[in-house]
Design brief:
The protein is about 50% helix and about 10% strand. The chain is an alpha+beta fold and about 270 residues long. The strands form 2 sheets. Strands 1-2-6-3 form a 4-stranded antiparallel sheet. A two-stranded antiparallel ribbon has the order 4-5. The longest helix has about 55 residues, at about 1-55. Mean pLDDT is about 80; it is low at about 215-268.
């Protein structure tokens, strides 16, 4: 009887020791993962900071792009300082990457070498890109989209999702996605605007119905990964407010040339 009791006590002690060891090992792995994620994010944040400090815009398009880059640098710096999980560090990295895309756009606008290619942003490939000049009249406003910067299209967007909807990469006459970026939901007329601006455009291969349903929200990216047999590494988006079409009225937006952020910028 005493022998059985001793064996039971030994088993209990061993189980407790194993649990303590596993918990500590898990904690060490988590800490290592967090440290690695923060280091990866800081690498891009430092690159972005150097670009923001050393570049000065020479025209409206480059100045606006660099203003957006600066906003993303500020956001990424704040995010990484507060990051306590690998996921939060990844979001800081995504903000910095957005900023680098804006820097890259500013360099293009100034006729400079854009620098090396960047990692893709969440939802960027599925959002597509503006491939031709397009001008529409919408609710009394003339809205333009172009693959190139100009005096008429000084507002850049690197492509991706805003409030769950795809916004193609390109240069625009106004930041028509800003209300959704700020409010986290699209206005009533957003589907009609999207359809009028991009209908039939090569490189944006989904229409208003797809925009309304959130098509492009990682769908093509996920399909490509599936075809390649890649089951890991999914998108992590910076500030995606979800896939719903809000009932607010986004009409009559006055942007006033302000800095609304949300950019990415390429590391050089």
């Amino acid at each position: 009887m005493n022998t059985v009791l001793v064996v039971l006590i030994i088993l209990v002690i061993a189980a407790i020791a194993l649990a303590v060891y596993s918990s500590r090992a898990s904690g060490r792995r988590t800490a290592t993962t967090l440290a690695d994620a923060k280091a990866d994010a800081r690498r891009l944040i430092e690159r972005l900071g150097g670009q923001v400090l050393n570049l000065t815009g020479t025209d409206e398009a480059s100045k606006q792009a660099l203003a957006d880059a600066s906003e993303r640098y500020t956001a990424a710096s704040s995010q990484i300082d507060q990051a306590t999980t690998p996921r939060q560090a990844e979001l800081a990295k995504e903000s910095a990457l957005e900023g680098l895309y804006y820097v890259r756009a500013a360099r293009v606008a100034m006729g400079m070498d854009p620098g090396p290619e960047l990692e893709s942003l969440a939802g960027q490939r599925s959002a597509g890109a503006v491939t031709e000049d397009r001008r529409i009249n919408f609710e009394g406003r003339e809205i333009e989209a172009s693959p190139e910067p100009s005096e008429r299209t000084p507002n850049y967007y690197p492509g991706g999702r805003v409030a769950g909807r795809p916004v193609p990469a390109g240069w625009y006459s106004e930041p028509w996605w800003k209300p959704a970026l700020v409010a986290g939901a699209w206005g009533i007329g957003s589907v009609l605007l999207f359809d009028a601006l991009f209908s039939g455009m090569h490189g944006v291969d989904y229409g208003a119905q797809g925009f309304e349903s959130g098509y492009g929200e990682g769908y093509q990216d996920g399909l490509a990964a599936s075809d390649a047999g890649d089951a890991g590494g999914g998108d992590f988006g910076g500030g995606d407010a979800g896939g719903f079409d809000g009932g607010g009225d986004g009409g009559g937006w006055d942007f006033g040339g302000g800095d609304f952020g949300g950019g990415d910028f390429g590391g050089f």
